[in-house]
Amino acid sequence: MMKPVSIACGLLACCLSASAAAQSPYPTKPIHFIVGQSPGGATDVVARLIGQKLGEHLGQGVVVENRTGAAGSIAATFVVNSAPDGYTLLVVSSSYAINPSLYKNLPFDPVKDLAPVSLIAEAPFLLVVHPSMPVHSVKDLVALAKAKRGKLNFASGGNGSSGHLAGALFAYLAGVDIVHVPYKGAGPALIDVISGNADMTFGSVLSTLGHVKQGRLRALAVTSAKRSRGIPELPTVAEAGVKGYQRTTWYGILAPAKTPAALLDRMSAEAKKAVESPAVSTKILNDGAEPVGSTPAEFKTFLAAELKQAAEIVKRAGINK
């Protein structure tokens, strides 16, 4: 018969073993950030900014992989089918909440197949035009678009992208006819506006503001409800004459759905540390965005509201796929 002391020691050993397993080191190898947009686009910029700081904090590299195509579905599906171990994460923008309203046969369920980790930042779009355009305000642009009905165009990162919705909503509320030109990513769209091959774009402030400061683009307004803290001299689109206009973008991190809650909390906490670090938060603010860094529960609530709002905007603007 086993003595009570032996039983107690055995139980203690089991508990210590379980505790050690529960607290096993993470990460022990590089983490992969999967991005469904092209290099140079705002989502890619955010992923690399956060990834670098995360790598410094965790002592492991963070590799950013761009898996473009199918409005981000290729990247999302890759992460959905990845091991739920915290080493393969999806970095998304607001287009993630738009796609379910545009594509009825997505190869994954955006609510059930991926788990929210953290909302990283929110940002307005910048309505920018090529400097050769004879417009210096939103009113100038609306007047020109009405005078040249169907002649002006706006570039976006693709059909159904956040920039597409921003432009479509602008055209709807301003009562103008501007042609949508979709590109394979926000980066190529921005390049073509800079080169003068496209007239304008609604670009994320994170990827666009630097070009404005260097004179490659002319900014007319921000698309948020309030002026940006980083660029307060720019009016909002609504303030500049298109009443009722408001559209922003955001960036967040998702993980495979079966990722353990404890691991989601750990990843969220590390992401929050990265966002709140002076180097990252200052960079985000200077670029005209707002750093966030949320819990998984907070991001889940936010995402549910975004999915609902996106559906309403798609219907209102009459965008069909």
Question: Could you provide a short overview of the structure?
Answer:
The protein is of the alpha/beta class.
Radius of gyration, Cα only, in angstroms?
Answer: 22 Å
Count of individual beta strands: 10
By DSSP (H or I, 4+ residues per run), the number of helices equals 11
Segments where pLDDT lies below 50 for 5+ residues?
A: 15-22
| CATH fold topology of the largest domain | D-Maltodextrin-Binding Protein, domain 2
- Tell me the overall shape: globular
Q: CA-to-CA gap between the ends? A: 73 Å
CATH 2nd-level architecture of the largest domain: 3-Layer(aba) Sandwich
Q: Helices and strands in order, then pairings?
A:
Elements: H1 4-22, E1 31-35, H2 42-58, E2 62-66, H3 73-80, E3 88-93, H4 95-102, E4 114-129, H5 138-147, E5 153-156, H6 162-174, E6 179-182, H7 186-194, E7 200-204, H8 205-213, E8 218-222, E9 248-256, H9 261-276, H10 278-286, E10 290-291, H11 296-317
Parallel strand pairs: 1-2, 1-3, 5-6, 5-7
Antiparallel strand pairs: 3-9, 4-7, 4-8, 4-9, 4-10
Helix pairs in contact: 2-9, 4-11, 6-11
